[in-house]
Amino acid sequence: LTSEGKVVAIPDIDNDGEAEAPIVLVEDLNNPHGLALRCNDESDRTKPCRLYVAETEAVNLYEYDPAELRATFVKKIADLPPANTRGKRALLLNPSGEELFVGIGSSCAFCVELDRRYASVQSLDLTTGILSTYATGLYNTIFMATHPLTGKIWATEMAPGGPADEDSPPDEINIIKEGNNYGWPFCYGANMAVTHFDLKESVMAEPCAELTKTPSMIDLPVHSGPLGITFIPSEGWPEKYSNDLLVAYHGPSTSALGDGHRIVRIEMDPEGTPTGAVEPFMTGFSDSNGRVVGRPVALLVRPDGTLFVSDDFSGRIYRVAWRGKR
């Protein structure tokens, strides 16, 4: 619960498909957003797990007891830069459990950052505690996911601009690679130059050239507000859905301002390359009159294929599972 400064567990104790009341694990935090959980033995609930929580200015480690649903503070493992409107920090744990990727949004809409930790994805070595830059030129990466076959990091990228700005750059999906620069604040999308800088007078030659800037993997509609991102597992869904990409469009405050308020699916080939158009997967977050009734945020898929969707407008979490043809 970011706005309340809490991390909660939402257990389904009686296994009826509906969660009981939330249990507060940690509270009095500064804008908690990114969570990463590492359990050495997922099947043994008697053994503690490591829970990483990203606040705006820090990443903290907790010992989590899955049987008692209790989290105990262990230590702060990294300091992060302060923020204004982009204070949500993404976390993604690499498969080895030895490295955390930390998404840090920019400190402004269009500027050259003095602190290079802004507008980047940082790599946090959990053995040494050293934070180093992994990728740059990323305006606001606040959700990431690992492709189950390729191991590549995919991330949603919200573009600068308010919901009424018609000339805003498109939102994006990027594949985050070590050492790459994704263009912000000079470029967006497929290496198109922004209009907020006089590039002719810039000291940089061709600042959006492909040799120096990495283009987006997929451009999304302006103001779609992409947040949660995940891949459909091979279990629990028809084969045609296997490893396809799901993205949550949080959307603007009203559906009249953008193509948001839905979950979309993007078909992928076995090599992790998009092969199909962006198509609706889960809708109904706005009614026929354009009134917003839900805004999806985070996506979580269990290995059995069960999908969970959080909605910060209605305050609900939806459980989605395949039940065969309708």
Please describe what this structure looks like:
The structure is a single chain. Strands 3-4-5-6 form a 4-stranded antiparallel sheet, with no helix packed on it. The protein has a 4-stranded antiparallel sheet with strand order 7-8-9-10, with no helix packed on it. It has a 4-stranded antiparallel sheet with strand order 11-12-13-16, with no helix packed on it. Helix content is 0%, strand content 38%. It has strands spanning 7-9, 23-26, 34-38, 49-54, 58-65, 70-79, 90-93, 99-104, 120-125, 131-136, 141-146, 153-157, 171-176, 187-188, 192-193, 218-220, 226-231, 245-249, 262-268, 274-282, 296-301, 307-311, 316-320. It has 326 residues and is an all-beta fold.
Features:
326 residues, four-stranded antiparallel beta sheet, globular
Overall helicity: under 10%
Strand order within the widest beta sheet: 3-4-5-6
Which percent band covers the strand fraction?
35-45%
**Which sheet architecture does the biggest sheet show?**
4 strands, antiparallel
Distance between the termini: 35 Å
Question: Low-confidence parts, pLDDT < 50 over ≥5 residues?
Answer: 199-203
Compressed to H and E, one letter per element, the order equals EEEEEEEEEEEEEEEEEEEEEEE
Helix/strand structural class: mainly beta
- Can you count the beta strands? 23
Continuous helix count: 0
Q: What Rg do the Cα atoms give?
A: 20 Å
Shape: globular
Round the mean pLDDT to the nearest integer and report it. 87
